[in-house]
Amino acid sequence: MGQKLKIAGWVSLGVLAGALTTVSLQTVARGGISPLPLEEIQQLSAVFGIIKTDYVEPVDDKKLITDAISGMVSSLDPHSQYFDKKSFKEFREGTSGRFVGVGIEITQEDGLIKIVSPIEGSPADRAGLKTNDLITKIDDTAVKGLSLNDAVKRMRGEPKTKVQLTIFRKDESRTFPVTITREEIKTQSVKGKLVEPGYAWVRLSQFQERTVDDFVRKIEEIYKEDPNVKGLVLDLRNDPGGLLDAAVAISAAFLPEGVTVVSTDGQLAESKSVFKAAPEYYARRGQGDPLKRLPAALKKVPLVVLVNEGSASASEIVAGALQDHKRATIMGSQSFGKGSVQTVRPLGPDTGLKLTTALYYTPSGKSIQAKGIVPDVMVDETAEGDVYAALRMREADLEKHLGNGDASAEAEASAAREKLREEARKRLEEDTKKPVSARRLPEFGSDKDFQLQQALSQLKGQPVKVSKTLTERPPEKKDKDE
What we know:
The chain is an alpha/beta fold. It is about 25% helix and about 25% strand. A hairpin with a 4-residue loop joins strand 9 and strand 10. The two termini are about 30 Å apart.
């Protein structure tokens, strides 16, 4: 649920393949491969043969093999994944921040698709679509009854193809069709503004290929508007992660050069690495240091980082590095707890494998796997409390999640958590009976954003309304046979 009690996505992007993932995109030539277990391979072959001859209807060979590979990989942990042609294309679009579509951020409301905002300069923006417009039909298909993902797929397509959207504009009480030509869209993973004189807010929603450049441009804009920024809030709430080099770069923007940002450790030699706040660890080949244009004052400006249960992976790397180096005050609620690194290895021109190859550690050597970053100051999401936090999934709730070696949690922690979830479920049931406007959580970055207001109070040295209910969630105590 996070910021709003609803699902949101980018049109033509859909659900980001690789969400909650810190990814290192690379291809590594395999040297020595362990001998194949012949007995098990023979058994697999026997099962394949029996299915081909005995199953109730013919089964395609490619489907059987693909499903076998997918099952083998997905059984390892929640983040390893086999990509077929379609999912591999979507994954690469998601990490690049580029996709083909109409260019609107959307959500679902009362069974219809609601436009949260058109992306500036996109086909939808040029067509005059506005925030709060409702999409009732996509071509000849009524939106009512479609899932958000189904609606997104219908608005996706090839460049220069057309899609007709039927729009209901509430404030004008009229319905009208708009024909839009799809084109490549560049998503904006960085937002920011001066919330008041001297104090800035910068939000990262994902760590994509373009995130660092967009971050630098946004910081330049802010300092051009006010060269004497006295405090900055870096908002990583509901940021599911993304590319490792982008996380290292954002950390380096605030840290002294050369200090450790994150280290990784795994079975392969290349998985045992230390990433530091220096260009050679984040600059892409031939592109130079993207942080050179940043104002020097950014290294010293008082900083608060906001996190919550939706902050995962790359966002936890940034929060952990800034916390360990005492560069920022971390505020909000305990983060997701995804402390593993996935490497994407192409298996051919259009398929690939995303495999967990390492765990990462904060500069002080702490693993956040299945635990998360614990804020320095716990702050509820609203003045009424963190009413739905217990319902949000974290790494420790995922089936087959990797442990962090800490089995010190007491057994009653699970029972206490279930009690909180039951209370939150009842609250949610009551809230669903209210009008949508009455149950919507405030928009991040608005003057009604309670956690942002507390972050500003922290920067100004004013009293902060610390949570009276949030506590550190201890790691799960796993059974010995898991």
